[in-house]
# Entry
Amino acid sequence: MAHLTERDVCLNITTLEAKDIRWPTSLGAHGSDAMHTDPDYSCVYVTISTAEGTYGNGLTFTLGRGTDIVLLAVRAMKRFVENRTTDSIYRNFAQFWRELTSESQLRWIGPEKGVTHLAVAAIINALWDLWGKIRGVPVWRLLTDMDPEELVSVIDFRYITDAITPEKAINILKTSQHDRQTRINELVAKGYPAYTTQVGWLGYNDDQIRTLCRKYLSKGFTAFKIKVGQNVENDINRCRLVREEIGWENKLMVDANQIWDVNEAIAWMEQLKDFKLLWIEEPTSPDDVLGHKKIADGMRKHGIGVATGEMCCNRVLFKQFLQAGALDFCQIDSARIGGVNEILAVYLMAKKFNIKICPHAGGVGLCEMVQHLQMWDYTSVSGTMTDRMVEFVDQQHEQFIHPAVINAAACYVAPTQPGYSTELKPEAIAMFEYPNGSEWKRMFAEGTFSKEDY
Amino acid sequence: MAHLTERDVCLNITTLEAKDIRWPTSLGAHGSDAMHTDPDYSCVYVTISTAEGTYGNGLTFTLGRGTDIVLLAVRAMKRFVENRTTDSIYRNFAQFWRELTSESQLRWIGPEKGVTHLAVAAIINALWDLWGKIRGVPVWRLLTDMDPEELVSVIDFRYITDAITPEKAINILKTSQHDRQTRINELVAKGYPAYTTQVGWLGYNDDQIRTLCRKYLSKGFTAFKIKVGQNVENDINRCRLVREEIGWENKLMVDANQIWDVNEAIAWMEQLKDFKLLWIEEPTSPDDVLGHKKIADGMRKHGIGVATGEMCCNRVLFKQFLQAGALDFCQIDSARIGGVNEILAVYLMAKKFNIKICPHAGGVGLCEMVQHLQMWDYTSVSGTMTDRMVEFVDQQHEQFIHPAVINAAACYVAPTQPGYSTELKPEAIAMFEYPNGSEWKRMFAEGTFSKEDY
# Structure
């Protein structure tokens, strides 16, 4: 049970509204990778309103087609939220989370994965935004200020007690409490290190890559990630030219976005082993724990780590990746598994198994949300930034009222506004709501997009 | 590439229609288990029509709420099927399957799991029904009559080549070809053994259970499965009274429907170990390969096998369950993973790892479909029925034009009609299409159900 205090004014939730919002990013090659060749960055955007006027926003990231399917799933879950008090949710948040994820008929079409879990993420993220606003603090402070028992009380431990129990989780948090204020001060002063994925989308040519390397070097970045996996000669060429631009002291990571089979991944990476790569990301199916374990074993002699997680579907898969030693960098996503509550469980398991978390971001709103989580990890769980960083992609931030901000040292600036940084500007919604936003009407009229595309 | 012959008249596909059909089974306690307390057995029902008049039907099973979400996903995939020729699909069926499952924007909301994969199953199942009708044979014969190369050509081996390659799969099938005609004859003469789940849904009381045991004994059944997991004393009582009714020579299995954590499963089953149980089914999360491995290891000394698979989301998870030795009975489902093509891969991997397949059935149409797959396993893969059987639940069969039939020896009768046995009666659709079928209109009018329930 959460220890609700006078900080928690009890509000009366009236409505949960959800919108399908899509940006036509496929018109550039932004965001393109080996498996997702033409993404239209999109989201299902949730607004939970209260009778008292305070509201929370949450979202889940999508790639265009299918956003309407997730939207329908969110609407199927509205009845769990509407006409409740905030106290009735936050006072037993783990139980609420389980009700939402284990609804006796809906769970059949999951369970806890894919469309229905993305829908849960949007709703849960909106509830955390609302909770932050109720307490008047950004979510990273909300989490940091919770005592260990309160924080652990929001987690549903079903299916993970063989890896971590509530008692063990509380112990981890208690052990990490020393010097917390020092770390908070440091975060506020310096921010949290970011890396850029923006130099090497697959759709970019050599000149674009060189230009972007220089641009991000000049912005203070020291860690760079590029996409690989369509053609090995091309990959060798891309790695070589990025190394020419960034040198050998900066970090370089590569990302295959699930293109390979297990043995293929090992063979392909053999050909990239001389580029001093920090990690190979998503070498194969996001569901393949044992496959990643084999790849990780194969990469060890080259000093290349294995990273995955952005499409890991829930805490049960993450648990196994951690138990098996199948990854070196755990890339939680803020809107794939069931929102903050479930992600906290992954952070605590990662700490127990001594695995570094480097969150996935980019997309729409992922940078905005995940910065909060990783800052809490620094203040309250791992207590270190060593070999940890958060992905940064400079897209769609201008759509948000309180966007993620990168400082001159290429660090995420600690958010100060209450909530989860998830509120879109009204004009963004007016322009890009699908299919009736003003930009979509214009593009359909001009023939830039056809409705048959969706 | 499939070796299309003159058997394969090329048809022109015109439309793919999908319907949401729900039966109000929650009004009884039929189908109730520890996690699914009030299922309304439902399906998304697909009809693929051709200009020539031949059509195929396929379905995916659901539990009521959420059927509309899967329906929307099916409709999002229509464009892959409509206005194509059947040749363009069957000639390179593996490639078609990959296009459907790896669509560059839609895959983000899966991939290959949950709502989108259920949608794929309904479409792929309809295409197999159509193929059977084109060749004029039931699907089990269609599969049996394919030469090994043709059969293997329909499988997308992405992500499983570390466990099985096309070459290995062809070898398995070639090795199993001897005496095939003898097995076909035996199947036609005797059918394939079934077991019943109908004696012990959680909602049933002791008298109901005893009565049902006697009923199914008198129908020739020798294997019985009951639900467990809500209360251990109750479970002990239920096991005891079922054993009193069926004796100790008949087979008894128990099914927990994912209710336990890993260590809890082991501890709970310790209390049921004296009932000579053939298997414990779904002891924990369907995603937990390593957890099932631990449970399987814990059960071995009691001679209890571990069974799972009905909610295993794709071939990558099945691959790991098999590689890890995490199950003793592999329970493929005909409408959870991506239809026949993907299921064939699981059968072939199970053969390689020497694990018995005992398919999940019940629901709506699952018995109808899965009988074909298991009969093909007998003729062409495992070549044996030893310790293998197919679940049977006597519900919703009367809704089908060619329902699964159980003979006096409690065996599935080999289907003789062309196709996949998936065609619903027109009157079933007229009555139970949701929400405008005649029965739903009546129930809404009478207040038996409220639209707010969904």
Notes: Chain A has a mean pLDDT of 95. Chain A touches chain B through 66 residues (CB under 8 Å). The CA atoms of residues 110 and 157 of chain A lie 18 Å apart. The longest strand of chain A covers residues 13-22.
